[in-house]
Specification:
Elements (H helix, E strand, L loop, with lengths): L1 E6 L14 E2 L2 E2 H12 L4 E5 L3 H9 L19 H14 L6 E5 L8 H14 L3 E7 L8 E3 L5 E3 L16 E11 H5 L9 E5 L11 H16 L4
Parallel strand pairs: 1-4, 1-5, 6-10
Antiparallel strand pairs: 2-3, 5-9, 6-9, 7-8
């Protein structure tokens, strides 16, 4: 069975009630649920939450909320991997054999069903343990500088100073949208950021972290423009 797991705890601090706050017309979690359902990939789309209001909203948009997440997996320090493993183990305890899992973040309004389906195809064709969304850094990381204790600048890689930007190796970072993987890999704690993963590369205009109120405003503007252009 292929399962989508959407983690959505209730205790967000920087943007209160972030996971069900309205974003461009509807609760932001609705975009992740709808993308998962539209992908056609999943036998079950689950929301893992500790919050009854989030659970109610998730069910309104078609997700299953078969359990309330325990408190020890709902604090500020709870990681995503333990939350995924908890949901897989819950399924196994109910006699549901999970083979493939996709964790989709609740604040990923740029994700679409097609991209989830394409990433699953990539996971299968590559024969990897994981496939997740990444995007290229907009500025060469080799040109990064630090501020010294003396309030001066120092390059992290001064030997790259004279190299042309186009000659520097591209670097990528996690796009923070979704993570496909084999259930066995998650349960065995196979490293995610490693040779076990295949990248699904997204363009910059589809990536925006939503951690602060400023991030939210930027993301909502981006979404409105992309929606008008039929690009999300």
């Amino acid at each position: 069975m292929k399962v989508c797991i959407i983690p959505a705890r209730g205790g967000s601090k920087r943007i209160p009630r972030k996971n069900i706050k309205h974003f461009d017309g509807k609760p932001i979690i609705a975009y992740s649920i709808e993308a998962a359902l539209q992908s056609g990939c999943f036998d079950k789309v689950m929301v893992s939450t500790d919050d009854h209001e989030i659970a109610d909203v998730a069910r309104q948009y078609g997700a299953d909320v078969p359990f309330i997440r325990p408190a020890d997996l709902s604090n500020d320090h709870a990681g995503t991997i333990p939350v995924i493993c908890h949901a897989i183990n819950w399924c196994e305890e109910q006699g549901i054999r999970v083979t493939d899992v996709c964790c989709v973040y609740a604040t990923a309004p740029f994700v679409t069903g097609k991209r989830l389906a394409d990433a699953y195809e990539l996971l299968c064709s590559a024969g990897s343990e994981y496939c997740f969304s990444v995007t290229e850094y907009v500025f060469p990381i080799q040109r990064a500088v630090s501020i010294t204790p003396q309030n001066r600048l120092a390059m992290f890689e001064p030997d790259k100073f004279t190299m042309r930007s186009q000659d520097l190796e591209p670097a990528y970072h996690d796009a923070g949208q979704f993570y496909w993987g084999k259930a066995s890999a998650f349960l065995s704690n196979v490293p995610l950021f490693s040779e076990h993963a295949t990248p699904y590369v997204l363009p910059h205009y589809l990536v925006q972290d939503i951690d602060t109120p400023d991030d939210w405003i930027r993301a909502e503007f981006m979404h409105k423009v992309l929606k008008a252009e039929n690009k999300c």
